[in-house]
Design a protein that fits this description.
- The protein is an alpha+beta fold and 81 residues long.
- 23% of the residues lie in helices and 41% in strands.
- It has one domain: Ribosomal protein S16 (S16 Ribosomal Protein, Chain: A), CATH 3.30.1320.10.
- The chain has a five-stranded mixed sheet with strand order 4-3-2-1-5.
- The longest helix has 10 residues.
- The mean pLDDT is 93.
């Protein structure tokens, strides 16, 4: 099982808000997740990012792979393995 840290889209049409979730890579984007560790709102200026750093580090150390966007958000927030 490949575990990924990725975005789940919520919100309305043309007004996307995302949750940062840990999920099996085989599950659909809006499907069941293992854990929700944050949120991302690109509609605000500057974009609002809330991340549970302890949970993110725990999952990274357990082998979860972040997507490219999540890796960039983690880097900006100062979260590394």
């Amino acid at each position: 099982m490949a575990v990924k840290i990725r975005l789940r889209r919520i919100g309305e049409k043309r007004n996307a808000i995302y949750r940062i979730v840990v999920a099996d890579s085989r599950v659909a984007r809006g499907g069941k997740c293992i854990e929700e560790i944050g949120s991302y709102d690109p509609n605000t200026e500057p974009a609002t990012v809330k991340i549970d750093a302890d949970a993110a580090k725990k999952w990274l150390n357990n082998g979860a792979q972040p997507t490219d966007v999540i890796a960039r958000l983690f880097k900006n927030a100062g979260i590394e393995k």
